[in-house]
Amino acid sequence: MAWQQTHKEQTRQRILSSAGKLFTTQGYKQVSIDDVMKDAQLTRGAFYHHFNSKQALYSEAIVFAARQAGQNRQQKSLSLPDLIRRYLSMEHVIATEDPCPLAFLISDIGLQEEAAKQSYGKVLDGFVTRLSLHSGIDETKVLQAAITMIGGVALARSTASAPQAQNILDAAYCNALRALEIIK
Predict the structure, then answer these.
(1) Model confidence over 87-130: pLDDT tens digits?
(2) Residue 63 and residue 59: Cα distance in Å, rounded?
(3) How many of the other CB atoms lie within 10 Å of CB of 132?
(4) CA-CA distance, 174 to 184, in Å (whole number)?
């Protein structure tokens, strides 16, 4: 019996991992249940043992993807300016590994149901809290920096010009450091 419960949880994690990656990089409408299950190397029938709907999966996958990305980034000990620079990098803008759902889904989330918006809000709260704990700065200033960082990545992803994208990231970096009072 213990194997079955472990197996069920591992299968659920595979589905969430695939969904998080696909939804974050392609958006809700572009990804089907079949796409998720193919990426997870599972059958469509297995989906319904874990989730009631695509929307339910989307809501959970947002949080899962953010946790996964956060855990992978926290493995490296970085100063706050270096952490912000890494977030506001071209590598992150074009990321296929651990993209931030906050920046990558910024226009997609407004079109979703309340549960997805609540998940997105939970991820935003966690992002702000982690930055606040890392910096020791109050959450109001950290929220300003977080908005700048998320918006910077989202805008940089929205341009076809690499130099323009880099200028956006550089401006966002300076504004985030100012919001956190690291530079004046």
Answers:
(1) 999 999 998 778 899 999 999 999 999 999 999 999 999 999 98
(2) 7
(3) 19
(4) 9
Cα dihedral 85, 87, 69, 138 sign: positive
**Token pair listed for 48:** 């319904």
pLDDT greater than 60 at residue 3 = no
For the entire predicted model, the pTM comes to 0.88
Q: Which of 149, 55, 176 is nearest to 109 (CA)?
A: 55
Q: Cβ distance 153 to 162 under 8 Å? A: no
CA distance 47 to 50: 6
In this structure, the chain runs to a length of: 184
Q: Scanning the structure block, which residue is given the tokens 């300076």? A: 174
Q: Are 66 and 102 in contact (CB under 8 A)?
A: yes
